Amino acid sequence: MLIGQADWKLTANAQASVGVWGYTATFPYIDPSRPGGQRRGGVYGSVQGPLPFGDDWSGWIRLGLADPAVDVVDSYFGAGLVKQGPLRGRKDDQLGIAIARAGVAGPARRLQDLPEAETSIEATYRLAATETFALQPDVQYIVHPAGAPRLPNALVFGLRVVLTGQCPRNSADTED
Prior knowledge:
single chain, mainly beta, nine-stranded antiparallel beta sheet
């Protein structure tokens, strides 16, 4: 797999990116009536940074496209908002909401009776307990999970544990 990406700093805290990706190997077409195959590849772009309606709000948008002849997921759209310090006295905490849509390619939908897309709606809260420890509970509602036609919509809960910083050095590891 090869990836090329270009990034532009729009401001000190904002960035735009575009990229291309592709495999060097050939993959069969999704439609088995088409002989042969082709390389898989696609393009993507993103923009992220602070929003104009408050210094404590930031956002992001991501888009991607792939070849529907060889990729089951041929499009992606995601967007989210993050509020820094959403509660009084909790300036290092973050509240986030996001939506993502993974589009299922037409050939895969027709041949495998798949839905048009998988869509996820997410809410999360990052609780900065200390400078080096944070907990981040997360809840997602997923419509058509895994793009499977008969799976019910899903409610998913998660918890991320974040540890950062440096570990104290063991005295045996130091040089005199």
